[in-house]
C-alpha cells in the first residue's frame, strides 16, 4: 500500500498536466480558471488544488511537458531517416502541425506568450529554441560533410532562420489564419532551405490509391 499510493498520485498528477494542456490549447491562457482545468480533467477544483496549490507551478510543468513531447517526437522522426536531405525534410514536417487543433503545438504557443512576464516560461522557451537550432544545425553539418549540401552560410545561422520561420508559420496556423495553410508553410520553409543548402528539398507526394482491380 505504501508503494501504490505514490504511484496513484503520480498518475493523477500526470492526468492533470494533460488536462491542463488541453484546456490551455482550447481556451488560451487569458482568463483560464481552475474550474476549466477541473472540468477538462473530470474532477473537482479541490482535487486540482490538492495536487497543484499553485496554478503558475502547474502551468510551468505543463509547458515543460509539451516541449518534451514536441522535441523528442521530432528527434525520433529524424533518427529514422538515413540521408541528410531526407532528415531535413522530416524535421520540418515534424515541426509544422498537421491541424490547427494540434493540442501540443497550440499549448506551446499559448504558454510561450507567458515568457514576457515569467522567467520560468522564458527559460523553457529559450531551451526549446536552443535544442531545435542544435538539431537543425547538426543535420545541416552532416549534409555538408556528405557533400549533399553546399551551405550558403554557417549551419547555426541557417538553423536559427529555419526555426524562426517555423515559429512564424506555426503561430499563424495555430491561430486559424485562413490566409495560410500547412502545405504553403512547408513549401516556404523548404524553399528557403533549398536555397541555403543548394539542394532541392520538398515533401514527398502522398502515395496514390491503387486502382480497383477486375471485379472490384
Report what the structure shows:
- It is a single chain.
- This protein has 216 residues and is mainly alpha-helical.
- The protein has two domains: 1-53, Arc Repressor Mutant, subunit A; 56-197, Tetracycline Repressor, domain 2, CATH 1.10.357.
- The protein has helices at residues 4-27, 34-41, 45-51, 55-79, 84-95, 103-112, 119-146, 155-174, 182-197.
- It is elongated, with a radius of gyration of 21 Å.
- It has nine helices and no strands.
Our estimate of the beta-strand percent is: under 5%
Helix content: 55-70%
Number of helices: 9
CATH fourth-tier homologous superfamily of the largest domain: Tetracycline Repressor, domain 2
Q: What shape does the CA trace take?
A: elongated
Q: Could you say which structural class the secondary elements and strand pairing correspond to? A: mainly alpha
Q: Mean pLDDT, as a whole number?
A: 90
CATH architecture of the largest domain: Orthogonal Bundle
Features of this protein?
elongated, mainly alpha, Arc Repressor Mutant, subunit A, 2 domains, 9 helices, Tetracycline Repressor, domain 2, 216 residues
What can be said about this structure in brief?
The protein has 216 residues and is an all-alpha fold. It is 69% helix and 0% strand. Helix 1 crosses helix 2 (34-41), helix 4 (55-79) packs antiparallel against helix 5 (84-95) and helix 4 (55-79) packs across helix 6 (103-112).
Amino acid at each position: 500500500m505504501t508503494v501504490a499510493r505514490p504511484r496513484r498520485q503520480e498518475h493523477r498528477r500526470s492526468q492533470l498536466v494533460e488536462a491542463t494542456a488541453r484546456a490551455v490549447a482550447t481556451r488560451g491562457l487569458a482568463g483560464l480558471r481552475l474550474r476549466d482545468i477541473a472540468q477538462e480533467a473530470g474532477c473537482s477544483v479541490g482535487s486540482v488544488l490538492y495536487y497543484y496549490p499553485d496554478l503558475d507551478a502547474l502551468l510551468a510543468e505543463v509547458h515543460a511537458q509539451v516541449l518534451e513531447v514536441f522535441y523528442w517526437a521530432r528527434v525520433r522522426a529524424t533518427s529514422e531517416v538515413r540521408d541528410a536531405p531526407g532528415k531535413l525534410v522530416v524535421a520540418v514536417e515534424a515541426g509544422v502541425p498537421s491541424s490547427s487543433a494540434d493540442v501540443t503545438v497550440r499549448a506551446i504557443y499559448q504558454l510561450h506568450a507567458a515568457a514576457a512576464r515569467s522567467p520560468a516560461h522564458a527559460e523553457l522557451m529559450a531551451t526549446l529554441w536552443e535544442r531545435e537550432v542544435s538539431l537543425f544545425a547538426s543535420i545541416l553539418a552532416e549534409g555538408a560533410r556528405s557533400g549533399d549540401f553546399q551551405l550558403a552560410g554557417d549551419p547555426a545561422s541557417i538553423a536559427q532562420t529555419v526555426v524562426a520561420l517555423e515559429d512564424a508559420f506555426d503561430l499563424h496556423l495555430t491561430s486559424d489564419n485562413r490566409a495560410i495553410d500547412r502545405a504553403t508553410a512547408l513549401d516556404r520553409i523548404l524553399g528557403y532551405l533549398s536555397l541555403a543548402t543548394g539542394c532541392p528539398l520538398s515533401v514527398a507526394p502522398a502515395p496514390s490509391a491503387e486502382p480497383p482491380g477486375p471485379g472490384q
